[in-house]
Give the backbone structure.
Amino acid sequence: MEKKHLDLRLAQMTAEGTRFRAGVNIGVDITWDDLRARYDAVVVATGALVPRDLPVPGRDLPGVHFAMEYLVQQNRTGAGDAVDSQITAEGKHVVVLGGGDTGADCIGTAHRQLAASVTNLAIGRQPGTERPEHQPWPMNATLFEVSSAHEEGGTREYLASTIEFLSNEAGEVRAIRVAETEYLDGRRVPKAGTEREIPADLVLLALGFTGPESTELTSQLHVPLDGRSNVVRDGNYQTSHEGVFVAGDAGRGQSLIVWAIAEGRAAAAAVDRFLEGETQLPAPVKPTDHAFAI
């Protein structure tokens, strides 16, 4: 999304009375107790930003990064901000692990930074081009997609299991050892005898997210988390603490922006009802609603 659209929305919200206080780390710069004492209602809408890691040998080598480390830096550079020790793909063999939207963003950015090559690896099978029978409309079918980033070039490989990151003499990543993925007892495992190396000067992990950044939430606010590390909430978006609500990925888990928008509106209605005893605001979804499935 072009930043001008965000700027317009931020300007509108500011004119309507919203006060934005950037650079404040809740739980560090201000404790949760102080926040609750200052405001009658608090909405946790922090997203699910904890990245999924890949605990294989060589993971700590310089040159192996989470995707968001790379993408956020590029956004700041594009906005004209100074970035210390920027991660760049220029002249490098780049390998992106993960086939989702975040991975596609990494592919497009690496091409714009003039990478020597870009390879995208996915551990699973390549999806089909037609809707599967077990995912009829209106379900969100798993299909092979070619985004604008993929059209810019690079190689996409499926059934590729990462075994190890290999280093050069300087101790930096130089390659990835992968093997063909095989399915055994419902598990995806590397197939013996299929190991090979792929050159990699820069590896970007775009493997999804495991939940919200919850250390301060659980240590200071003591809210419970569910089995997927999401903040537990009731049917009114409220946590176990009266007046503290949660909306979006922090309560639902990693999802699409349309769910975040709908939950934001519904949570606003819940907060209005909590403060005023009633509300006229729309509540398009419930915390328990999910995408259509059979």
Summary: The domain at 3-49+219-276 is CATH 3.40.50.720 (Rossmann fold). The mean pLDDT is 93. The radius of gyration is 22 Å.
